[in-house]
Amino acid sequence: MYKIKKAFHLAYGHRLPDHKGKCRNLHGHNAVVEVTLAAAGLNDEMMVMDFAELGLKMKTWLDDNLDHKMILAKADPLARVLREQGQACYLTDGSPTAEALARLIYETAESMALPVRKVAFWETPTSMASYKK
Questions:
Q1: Dihedrals φ, ψ of 67, to 5°?
Q2: Domains, in order of start, for the chain
Q3: How many Å apart are CA 58 and CA 15, to the nearest integer?
Q4: Half-sphere exposure for 11 (CA within 13 Å, toward CB)
Q5: Which CA distances in Å does 111 have to 30, 38, 115?
Q6: Structure pTM?
């Protein structure tokens, strides 16, 4: 099995309204997202996928949807207020935890027909959540 991994950087804000600690308040992160692809064989160029192609596909989606956005649950009452004020928001079905964002990015890569094996979402330099099927 061959694997490649590419890292992406993004800045975002969120809050976890049901959290019992300080993360219930609006706050921001500089995240690193690692996308791992895997394949049993290599393509005609002897690659799982060209890093530039992977970078273009994932970075475009991350920039358009999550980077410099406020990521909130659809049910969060602040979502409506911020959007009315013209703030860029990305709304999730549930609480926008690192675990939920790792899964969201995994499923997005999968929908792009990428041979995704795992997504790691580093919320801080010492705190990471990952998702794989």
A1: -65, 130
A2: 2-131 (3.30.479.10)
A3: 24
A4: 3
A5: 25, 15, 10
A6: 0.95
10-residue averages of pLDDT along the chain (133 residues) = 97 95 96 98 96 96 98 96 96 97 98 98 98 95
The stretches of 41-117 forming alpha helices (DSSP H) are 51-65, 77-84, 98-111
Which tokens belong to 53? 């192609």
Separation between Cα atoms, residue 103 and residue 119, nearest integer Å:
7
Instruction: Name the burial class of residue 71, with classes exposed (0-12), middle (13-18) and buried (19+) by CB atoms within 10 angstroms of its CB.
Output: buried
Cα-flanking dihedrals φ and ψ of residue 100, to 5°?
-65, -40
The DSSP letter of residue 133 is -
